[in-house]
Specification:
By secondary structure, the chain is an alpha/beta fold. It has two domains: 4-14 and 272-383, Aspartate Aminotransferase, domain 1 (Alpha-Beta Complex); 17-270, 3-Layer(aba) Sandwich (Aspartate Aminotransferase, domain 2). 39% of the residues lie in helices and 15% in strands. It contains twelve helices and 13 strands. The protein has helices at residues 17-30, 40-59, 74-85, 100-110, 132-135, 158-168, 187-190, 254-270, 272-295, 323-334, 346-352, 370-383, and strands at 4-5, 68-71, 91-95, 115-119, 140-146, 171-175, 194-198, 210-214, 299-302, 313-318, 336-337, 339-341, 359-363. A seven-stranded mixed sheet has the order 2-8-7-6-5-3-4, sandwiched between helices. It has a four-stranded antiparallel sheet with strand order 9-10-13-12. Helix 1 (17-30) runs antiparallel to helix 8, helix 3 runs parallel beside helix 4 (100-110) and helix 10 (323-334) crosses helix 12 (370-383). The protein is globular.
């Protein structure tokens, strides 16, 4: 049975061959560290890391490539920023569609005296933009927000929210987990002060590599929550005050960075617009194909029905069939991998009315095909009899 992977919202698969080749070459032909080795091969590897920072800064409209910091994933990035920036007495706004990578740090910080409020969203996942300014308090220090929902794919209006933040002199922190690599993002134009990214989703890199990019004004406002050896200014036990060393202690995930470097080159050659167009075409084909099932009362689709204002993530509930059973049958009988449950986003499920049942989520990637989408439609037609 041919396997069909439709869980790209969790991690993209497969990766471009160039990514696997680059990681293999590093592991078998390079293998050393950077910032520690005083030899040419280590300097050459540092050049690849530096170029990766440059590419990321360019893609996201950052102010300086030195402000690109590598972490192991976007969850670590959000924790570093939120816990290093927010203090007792501060207030922060988030959307009601956030992933637990945002919500768990905020709930943890709430116990230490940080306030937060959720900007409401409707049942399609659309943010109540008109409510944002009225929710800002004198002690509001930041707005933190996902760019696109991992549950229904609906985009948040980050350019408009960024403008509100700029107007009110508060910082804007963006989670780009579902959009980096498929949607253009400019920190400068969107007034983003801290952009968090992960390498293993639409950036098409390996798992275990992510990071964040800071505006210059944010650097000294964030207290590092992890410290240790950096290979720089080793004569002192103080944390470096310069970037990126201020936030990059310990041995880096160099296989991951090398793989991400290859992935970014692949995306540049393929074209982000082309990738996005392909994924949204698959999304439209899928929604159009299962809409008759919804009209017949056999399943319910959540989120936007068109392809405007969204990414390639579609969630549904199968009427008369438990979602977990539907996902199991999709896998065991049809070879189709999806994700089922609450998707680490209980607040989002509460916003769209699917808590605590959850949904079955289909998420499309650059290597999926029309034939795979059609197979998923046929499988759902059979399961939702």
């Amino acid at each position: 049975m041919k396997r069909i992977y439709l869980d790209n919202g969790a991690t993209s698969f497969p990766k471009p061959k160039e990514v696997a080749d680059a990681v293999y070459e590093y592991m078998t032909q390079i293998g050393m560290n950077i910032n520690r080795g005083g030899y040419q091969a280590a300097y050459d590897l540092e050049g690849i890391v530096f170029e990766t920072r440059e590419m990321l800064s360019d893609i996201f409209g950052g102010s300086d490539c030195k402000n690109v910091v590598f972490t192991k994933n976007i969850t670590e990035s959000l924790n570093v920023i939120l816990k290093g920036f927010l203090e007792p007495g501060d207030h922060v706004l988030c959307s009601s569609m956030e992933h637990n990578a945002v919500m768990r740090p905020l709930v943890q910080l709430e116990k230490k005296g940080v306030e937060f409020d959720r900007i409401p969203a409707n049942t399609k996942g659309e943010l109540a933009l008109d409510a944002v300014e009225s929710m800002i308090k004198p002690n509001t220090k930041a707005i933190v927000m996902t760019h696109a929902s991992n549950l229904v794919g609906t985009l948040n209006p980050i350019a408009e929210v960024g403008a509100i933040c700029h107007k009110n002199n508060i910082k804007f922190i963006v989670d780009s987990a579902q959009t980096a690599g498929v949607l253009p993002i400019s920190m400068r134009e969107m007034n983003i002060d801290a952009l968090c990214f992960t390498g293993h989703k639409s950036l098409l890199g390996p798992q275990g590599i992510g990071g964040f990019i800071l505006d210059e004004d944010m650097i000294n406002r964030i207290e590092p929550i992890i410290s240790g050896g950096t290979g720089s200014i080793s004569h002192t036990e103080e944390i470096p005050d310069f970037m990126p060393d201020r936030f990059e202690p310990g041995t880096m995930n160099l296989p991951g960075i090398v793989g991400l470097h290859a992935a970014l080159k692949w995306i540049e050659q393929k074209g982000m617009d082309s990738i996005r167009s392909h994924e949204l075409s698959l999304t439209k084909r899928f929604i159009d194909g299962i809409t008759p099932l919804e009209e017949a009362g056999r399943l319910k689709i959540f989120g936007l029905r068109g392809i405007e204002g969204r990414v390639g993530v579609v969630s549904m509930q199968t009427c008369g069939v438990d979602c977990a059973d539907a996902a199991f049958r999709l896998d065991s009988e049809y070879g189709i991998a999806t994700r089922v449950g609450l998707h680490c986003a209980p607040a989002a499920h509460k916003s769209i009315g699917t808590f605590p049942t959850g949904t079955v989520r289909f998420s499309f990637g650059v290597f999926n095909t029309d034939a795979e989408v059609d197979a998923a439609i046929r499988a759902l037609t059979d399961i939702c009899k």
